[in-house]
Design goal:
The complex is a heterotrimer of chains A (213), B (256) and C (227). Chain A is built from eight helices and no strands. With 213 residues, chain A is an all-alpha fold. Chain A is flat, with a radius of gyration of 20 Å. Chain B has 256 residues and is of the alpha/beta class. Chain B is 36% helix and 23% strand. In chain B, strand 7, helix 6 and strand 8 form a beta-alpha-beta unit. With 227 residues, chain C is mainly alpha-helical. Chain C is 80% helix and 0% strand. Classes of the chains: A mainly alpha (213), B alpha/beta (256), C mainly alpha (227). Chains A and C meet through helix 2, helix 3, helix 6, helix 7 and helix 8 of A and helix 4, helix 7, helix 8 and helix 9 of C.
Chain lengths: 213, 256, 227
């Protein structure tokens, strides 16, 4: 594989990386917000969120990204490819993250909340100082798991013309007529990135288990 | 707000509560004067803990009223609407609570557990809160554990941190919910000693406990609750030596 | 004709695509599960290089995006003289990829089973294979039902990736219909609705299995308590 091909691959890898990073960075807090809104028990909102999470987890990313990219302009929202891709990944990952956060919030020991209430803390203070620092740790394995799933699903953006790491291999083989080498290199790059995330997740899992004892 | 000096630190009037169809508290009334130590005794499941948790509105009574230093808790002055979270928090800041399960915050060190509420609820300056916390930890005998995390402490040590944490808020009254029930027998003594010292200093205390000797020595009044009702209310010696009701006699024969 | 009417008029394309999706997903999920049952047995009982190799492949698959794997099979293998058509490549990709995931789930669940029953089975003369099929595997399925169900839904969603390697499944059909007749919302809403419906059905099935599991005390909730 020559220089130009390698360059195309690395550019594709960079595209995958930054799009994924933005979606992850937005999706974690968005998921938390959704989980909190749901626990706040405002009647209509809670059910809407349940609906959103259910749809978000059932819809393939490819279908969703096409839907958003093609559909948004018709609603008067001009959306260029990268924005459409990031919005799609964000909506998708937030739905999964909402469930991870929700599980952590639900399983949080009520006794600590009682002690905080007894000490005169408001709900907001309790969440900020007592709950969040701890559910952050228990949620981490689930959140990192979702990050690996996001990176693995990110090639879906290729379908709206973004040259990510996967589509870069098409570009290269269109010129060289040798698809195998770039695909193998791309696979290796994915393995390295996702492998690191998986290792991180195992570490966090072990740590969360120790803290739970 | 009361205009004259309120007569009672805690006043409970005709409080009733049901849990899942079972009447846990039936028309309970109780008064605790400033500086008094009241011990609430009774068999398991008699509603003692629920009563205590109603006083700082961790549980909400179905009917009745509760006053802290003359101010009604849980409900807005005038009656029907619930007290907003912030006002409730402010009232709770004046009531301390020590829990059977200690309920320390595991992600904070001992000193941080004690300074957390003073700093973030009372707005105390950090240095002042720390100085006060160190003083209190010394007082309950665990000054040396200041930087330790809860998970390394014994039950007795954790509970003493709990007591220091409650004291750090300078409360008008402290509620103790079976503070030694979860402790190994050897560790009970150190906690009771700390509580005794507090009573002698004039802290207003409401204690739910099974420690009969302690209740007898330290309390100003015994309130005996059985099946959700106040059955007897007497001075300690009178209660233990000359119980007036059959149920109290039955209870004492099993425990004393 | 309003847009919904247009969609209804061309519903055949969408339904054909949905049928393809269901066939791809259904056959692959079942085949992947069967394959994974064998893989887990190999991993648990195989010592030496073969067991390790299988373990390594399973781990590797779980760190690879599905689409790049499908690319490898469809675009890459022809360079080595192995040529699959899109459908075949799609099936092979779905089956082998998800077999690795099912295998990991089953393997993890196996570790939570109590060990004494294996000894009891051997003492009663069960061969390894018999014991696995009649005693271990049913318990694994009962206990891991929710996680397996999740993975089955992921298998359903992965079929959409195959539209990129020219398989005419539901997403490809919706895309074709909407671009030909200018009805993007209607076409994709129906497609998403069909995916959603299918995954709801899977979750209902999983819940049923979960209830059966709880009745026998073999559910995952009991497992957590026991540990």
């Amino acid at each position: 594989m020559d220089q130009a091909a390698l360059y195309t691959l690395l550019l594709g890898a960079w595209t995958t990386a930054w799009i994924s990073a933005v979606a992850i960075a937005g999706g974690v807090p968005l998921g938390l917000a959704l989980a909190l809104l749901r626990e706040a028990r405002v009647p209509a909102v809670g059910q809407l969120i349940v609906l959103y999470v259910s749809l978000g987890r059932a819809t393939p990313l490819v279908t969703l990204v096409l839907f958003i990219f093609v559909g948004a302009p018709l609603l008067g929202i001009p959306l260029e490819r990268y924005t459409a891709a990031i919005v799609t990944l964000l909506l998708n990952t937030a739905a999964f993250n909402a469930e991870v956060w929700r599980a952590a919030i639900r399983s949080f020991p009520q006794e600590q909340v009682d002690a905080a209430r007894a000490a005169g803390m408001t709900r907001a203070l309790i969440f900020r100082r007592i709950m969040l620092p701890q559910i952050w740790i228990t949620s981490l394995p689930g959140l990192v798991n979702e990050m690996t799933l996001l990176v693995k699903a990110s090639p879906a953006v290729a379908v709206i013309g973004i040259v990510d790491l996967t589509r870069a291999t098409n570009r290269i083989s269109a010129v060289t007529y040798e698809p195998l080498p770039p695909i193998l290199v791309a696979a290796a790059l994915y393995l390295v990135v996702i492998g690191t995330l998986v290792r991180l997740q195992r570490l966090l899992d072990a740590r969360a288990q120790r803290l739970a004892m | 707000m009361a205009t004259s000096a309120p007569p009672f630190a805690v006043e409970v009037r005709n409080v009733s509560k049901r849990f899942a169809g079972i009447e846990v508290l039936r028309d309970v009334s109780l008064q605790v004067a400033h500086g008094q130590t009241v011990s609430v005794l009774g068999p398991s499941g008699s509603g003692k803990s629920t009563l205590l948790r109603c006083i700082n509105w961790l549980e909400e009574p179905d009917s009745g009223e509760i006053f802290i230093a003359g101010v009604r808790i849980g409900v807005r002055a005038g009656g029907k609407t619930h007290m907003p979270d912030r006002d409730l928090a402010r009232m709770r800041a004046r009531i301390g609570m020590v829990f059977q399960g200690f309920n320390l915050w595991p992600h904070l060190s001992v000193i941080d557990n004690v300074t957390e509420a003073p700093i973030h609820v009372l707005g105390m300056a950090r240095e002042e809160a720390i100085a006060r916390a160190e003083q209190l930890l010394e007082k309950v005998g665990i000054g040396d554990k200041r930087d330790a995390y809860p998970y390394v402490l014994s039950g007795g040590q954790k509970q003493r941190v709990g007591i220091a944490r409650a004291l750090a808020m300078n409360p008008e009254v402290i509620l103790f919910d079976e503070p030694t029930s979860a402790l190994d027998p050897e560790l009970v003594g150190e906690v009771l000693a700390a509580m005794r010292a507090l009573a002698e200093e004039g802290m207003t205390m409401v204690v739910v406990t099974h420690e009969m000797a302690f209740a007898r020595e330290v309390s100003d009044e015994i309130v005996f609750i059985d099946q959700g009702s106040v059955v007897e209310r007497q001075a300690p010696d009178a209660f233990f030596d000359r119980p007036q009701t059959a149920r109290a006699r039955q209870f004492l024969s099993r425990y004393a | 004709m309003n847009k919904w009417e247009i969609l209804w008029h061309h519903r055949g394309m969408i339904l054909d695509g949905f049928e393809s999706t269901l066939i791809l997903f259904g056959v692959s999920a079942i085949a992947a599960f069967l394959l994974s049952s064998l893989i887990v047995l190999v991993i648990r009982t195989g010592r030496g290089p073969f067991g390790r190799a299988v373990r390594g492949i399973v781990d590797g698959m779980r760190m690879l995006p599905f689409l790049i794997y499908a690319y490898l099979l469809y675009y890459g293998l022809p360079s080595l003289g192995v040529r699959f058509d899109a459908w075949t490549a799609g099936f092979i990709a779905l089956i082998t990829y998800h077999a690795a995931y099912f295998a990991e789930i089953l393997r993890g669940t196996w570790a939570t089973l109590s060990t004494g029953q294996v000894e009891a089975a051997r003492a009663h003369g069960f061969t390894t294979f018999m014991m696995y099929r009649r005693i271990i595997l049913p318990q694994l399925v009962l206990r891991a039902a929710p996680v397996l169900g999740n993975q089955v839904i992921i298998c359903l969603k992965d079929t959409a990736f195959l539209s990129i390697i020219t398989v005419r499944e539901l997403t490809a059909a919706a895309s074709a219909v909407q671009s030909q007749y200018f009805i993007p919302f209607e076409a994709f809403i129906v497609a998403i609705g069909l995916y959603w419906l299918t995954s709801m059905l899977i979750e209902v099935l999983v819940a049923r299995i979960g209830i059966a599991a709880e009745e026998k005390g073999l559910g995952y909730k009991r497992a957590a308590v026991r540990r």
